[in-house]
Amino acid sequence: MSGSSPVQQIQDEVTCSICLEPFKDPVILDCGHNFCQACITNYWKASGAGICPQCRQSLPEGELRPNKELKAVADRVKGLDGDCKKHGERFSLFCQEERTLICKVCRESWQHRAHRVLPIEAAAEEFKEQLVRHQNGFQHAREKRERRAAAEERKYQILLEQTEREKKEIVSEFKQVHQILTHGEKLTCNKLEGTKKDLVKARNKNTEGLLRLDNLIDEIRQKCQQQGIEVLQVRQVKNMSNTQWYLGS
């Protein structure tokens, strides 16, 4: 670039490295490089990764900051061919207020006489210094964000480990409670099963007692139908006065 003209140097500085045209809506990445907004968006979409096409640095997609200063310079530089169309002189100066290239005749005109004007070489170097300052500023911001992200990552890791420990403790506690409830359930069911058996046994005993009483009543009814002496001759009559056994005491 050292052998090129100052105008060419400035034009190179405001040229997108993707489309090789003057910047249109330029944006600056965290790494400090500039591209047309549409160019870098399409590049990321096609590549599927947020990587700077120049330095290959990985960058978070979506964080595109407009570079208004570069846009103003690019708009001024567009269409310059190295000669002043108004006076036919070679561009040799750069007007800081108008942000445009001028010739020596333009410098003496009323339009630029009170303006701050620099030789193109000096203006190009000053512009480069501004770009470097912007690049350093964005690089510093990126490093700061990277450190903050690393600190937050450590914090997230601690919280994740703490959450996992609490999860294991809760699972263990619920497991113990489940074991206690299962044991209590078993004891209660066994007790109820024993009570059920006792109730069934008592019910069967009552049923058997009623059946014996029914049989005794039938026997008595049959004896009552016999004649007097026949009743007295039956041996079972001797025990009929004792009905306690039939009641199942």
TrEMBL record:
Residues 124-173 form a coiled coil. The keyword DNA repair does not apply. SUPFAM superfamilies: B-box zinc-binding domain, RING/U-box. Keywords: Coiled coil, Metal-binding, Zinc, Zinc-finger. It comes from the Eukaryota. InterPro entries: TRIM/RBCC, Ubox_domain, Znf-RING_euk, Znf_B-box, Znf_RING, Znf_RING/FYVE/PHD, Znf_RING_CS. Residues 84-120 form the B box-type domain. PANTHER family: E3 UBIQUITIN-PROTEIN LIGASE TRIM. This is Uncharacterized protein. It comes from Pelodiscus sinensis (Chinese softshell turtle).
